[in-house]
Amino acid sequence: MRAFRRKSSCSLTLLFCLFCIHFSVSSKGGFVEVSAKKTAASESSSSSSNQFGISATAFGTWREVFNAAPSRAEESIKDDISPPIKIYVYNDADVKKLLFPGKETQAYKSGVCGMKMYGSQVHIADFLLKSKELRTENPSDADFFFLPGWPKCMLDAPPNGAGLTDDELAKRLNGVIEKLPYIKKSGGRDHVFVWPSGRGPTLYKNWRCKIPNSIFLTPEGFYTDPYRTLAPYFDPWKDVVLPGFMDGRKDSYLETNKRTSKRTKLASFAGTVPDGQALKGDEKHVKAHPRERLLKLSKKYPDDLLAISGRTPKYAEILGDSKFCIVPRGLSPWTLRTYETFFAGCVPVIISDSVRLPFQEFLDWSLISIKWPEAKIDESLLTYLKSIPDEEIEKIVRRGEQVRCVFAYQADATKCNAFSAIMWALSLKDRNVASTSEWALRDEM
């Protein structure tokens, strides 16, 4: 792999140009246009399926939802072939000792680090360690190098919460990264790290100095930290957005999932409404958080929108009885609710202007969701949703059901699951292409 020579300095200001991804929903007669676009493949075979286990149905084929990806990925998906990459997983005892000394090791062994929304930090590493198709023990054969790490768990150290400080974690990671034998060859460009929370790589305060060119797997494709103008932590040229980890809760959503015609609620939202002061670095959202506006809208139109502030034991039932599930941004643009909706059988209405969603490289989100602007949380939202007939809602839901397996980490590793989708997204990253931040640096020389 060709490496780019460049001067690097942690004090340099990195200029970054974000490629904005717009989700467009075409409309006709006031509702989402989701008519099937028939292909030759769908007409010739109604039982064909791709690598993700997605088969053709009366509501359209997987080809409609998986949009135009580079031909090598599209053909491999169709032919049931694993991503054409090999990954070397660091598994040295010394690395483990540096990363996991002390009580946080017990937290990992107890299984709590692999639970709840940040569980991807554990399960991706476990998947790669067990993978016969993707893993290689010969570093010279590797396309990518993966460092297992549980940064969020090390900071939180559940169940007692007595984890490391940011400084302690940084010191520990500094020691590990300096000893990685293959990272200097490419400047870290082929090294992969998982950052499972909205903080992304800012969990590691020295990332800009130590691993600025490495690949980050993170659920947050937005620049939420106060230093984003210095070096945005998500780069669409090299990084991959992860789906959040749902652990076993998806089963409860499947159990309460009703047919669209049997649902009694038009739209709903139930979740934490953050204190505006907790939202940093974005005055627009501090002044008027979407969740706060949804609560006000619900009070004005209680028959059309159910909005609950805080946790409720009936959460799964509410999703399963709603035609549309409102997915507003939280403290940061991403939220686990996006993925829950596909198992609950409601249409996700995403209200998060800056969010970047998983697998946009090959997944057409406009066919399985609705994107609504944050500035329009008013009666126009409800008017629009009420204008969509049940049969059109059903089509969107069925498309979502076809692809929801790519959001499930618990699936059999040989079938459709989040792991294989993540690896496909990773395989599409061309490590011979410099990131936009590198171009900016060279332009300044």
Automatic annotation (TrEMBL):
Keywords: Golgi apparatus, Signal
Start and end residues of each Exostosin GT47 domain: 83-387
Keyword Oxidoreductase: no
Family: Belongs to the glycosyltransferase 47 family.
Species this protein is from: Bathycoccus prasinos
Protein known as: Exostosin GT47 domain-containing protein
Topology relative to the membrane: Single-pass type II membrane protein
Secretion signal span: 1-26
Localization of this protein: Golgi apparatus membrane
Top-level taxon of the source organism: Eukaryota
Principal location class: Golgi
Record has Signal as a keyword: yes
Any Gene Ontology CC annotation: Golgi membrane
GO MF, one example: glycosyltransferase activity
